[in-house]
Structures are given as C-alpha cells and as structure tokens.
Write a structure and sequence with these properties.
Blueprint (H helix, E strand, L loop, with lengths): L6 H7 L3 H13 L4 H21 L4 H22 L9 E6 L7 H12 L3 E4 L6 H11 L3 E5 L6 H13 L5 E5 L5 H7 L3 E3 L2 H12 L1
Parallel strand pairs: 1-2, 1-3, 3-4, 4-5
Length: 208
C-alpha cells in the first residue's frame, strides 16, 4: 500500500465519507481548484484499487468507495461544467469486459461532458461487440477504455485487436490505476491517460 501525503486522499482510501466530504467543502470554500481536488480524490481511489487487488479490500469496500466518490462529485460537478455548449464530437467510453470498476471512468465522462463532448457511456463489463456497435452507430473517432483489474488486460487487448481488424478509423485511449506506457503498447492502444484531465487533453488533441 502506498503512503499518501494528502489528507483527502487518505480519507477516501480509508472510506471515511464524512471526513472526505468535509475536506472537499473546506477546500472549495478556500478557493482550491476543483481539478486539484479531483487529483487528490484519484490518488485515494488508486489506493482503494490497489487494496482491492491485494485482497485487503473486497467488493463491498469498492462499492462504498464508489458511493463516496459519487457524493463528492455532486458537489464538484456544477463547478466543472463547460462555460460553452459547443459540441465537439462523440466519444465512446466504457469499462472493459469482466471489470465492474466505474469510479475513474465516471470522472472522465463528467469532465469530457463539461469540455463539450457528447459522451456515450457504455457502463461496465462492456463486450467487444458493444464497443464496436457504439463506435459504428455514433461514428466516434475516439474510444476510452477503463480497467482496474490486471486480469482483464488480456480482454482489453483482444477488444482492441478486433476493433483494429474491423477497419474502424478510431483512436483508443486507456486508463486505470496501473495503466502505463508499457500496458498501452502491449494492448495496442494509442494513448494512456494517467488521470481524468489527461483524457480531456487527449480528446482535444484527437478532435483538433
């Protein structure tokens, strides 16, 4: 387990919902950038994911962490909404087959919507067929795949391979608590997003 230096990240990782929400409200009142707060939340959620992977946390803790995040995001979402209603394009997003993790994905979806993108959120445990159908239906040039469980990496790789061989003109960004450049190259993705803000920057790059 990592040593967390930020009190908000610690509160999230310890599933202390009252403390986490209180810290968020205090920071907002002090003028802290909401994106900075999200970075701290993601740090805590990464720790939750690691504890789940090692067996220190179970599905019940993962669900509780998700509820804490949803409650906090209700506070943050109005502050992250885009100042313009400009429609930039369609982005398909989903958590890969076999993985029910949606915490990071939901933050990415919210930030993309706030930045002016139409996000087709496929949810969790998304099959290859469902990804392809959505990409085709919405003519989306970008798809985001989220993964928490290392055991689901092969499934992600297979999905990307099928998308590539189907002839779809698509860019693929992946994200998750352990995802890095090595994983990106292994599964055949185009980009890796280390946090939700990176996902928005990548989308802006693809749609530029």
């Amino acid at each position: 387990m990592a040593t967390l230096s930020d009190s908000l990240a610690v509160a999230v990782s310890e599933l202390d919902d009252e403390q986490a929400l209180a810290l968020v409200k205090t920071r907002l009142e002090s003028g802290v950038d909401p994106l900075s707060i999200i970075a701290n939340l993601q740090e805590g959620m990464t720790e939750v994911g690691m504890r789940f992977e090692t067996g220190d946390y179970f599905l019940s803790e993962l669900v509780l962490a998700g509820e804490i995040m949803r409650e906090i995001m209700e506070e943050l979402e109005p502050l992250l909404e885009g100042t313009t209603q400009e429609f930039k394009g369609n982005v398909v997003v989903g958590t890969v087959k076999g993985d029910v993790h949606d915490l990071g994905k939901n933050i990415v979806v919210m930030l993309l919507k706030g930045a002016g993108y139409n996000v087709i959120d496929l949810g969790v445990d998304v099959s290859t067929e469902k990804f392809i159908n959505a990409i085709t239906e919405y003519k989306a040039p970008l798809v985001g795949m989220s993964v928490l469980l290392t055991a689901c990496q092969d499934g992600m790789k297979e999905t990307i391979q099928v998308i590539r061989t189907s002839g779809l003109d698509i860019k693929i960004v992946i994200g998750g608590n352990y995802v890095d450049e090595i994983v990106k190259n292994n599964v055949g993705a185009d980009f890796v997003a280390n946090n939700a803000s990176d996902a928005v920057k990548i989308a802006d790059q693809v749609f530029a």
